[in-house]
Amino acid sequence: IHALFNITPNPSQNFISVKYTIDRNTTIDLNVFDLNGHLIYRLYHGKIIAGTYTQNWEHNLMSGEYIITLHSNEGLLWEKFVVQ
Questions:
Q1: How do residues 54-66 score in pLDDT, each as one tens digit?
Q2: CB-based contact 68:18 (threshold 8 Å)
Q3: Residue 58 pairs with which residues in a beta bridge?
Q4: Do residues 38 and 6 touch, judged by C-beta distance below 8 A?
Q5: What's the mean pLDDT when you consider all of the chain?
Q6: How far apart are CA 62 and CA 47, in angstroms?
Q7: Hey, what's the torsion of the CAs at 59, 2, 6, 84, to 10 degrees?
């Protein structure tokens, strides 16, 4: 896949920032899942042009581990983050 992907802060309390770089125009899905694979929140869905993006999210998730996925036509990236 053609993206760099970073989640901060990790662990978080009620806010995360997801930074990613896309090197070509594509369609992406940026989603949050629990560890059982249930979709918790859709951060972004749609067409995107090449560039660097930051998606901020204020959440009220319970303490635990979660996964953010970045899916495009070129593949899938995922990263775990912790809520304290």
A1: 999 999 999 999 9
A2: yes
A3: 15
A4: no
A5: 94
A6: 31
A7: 50
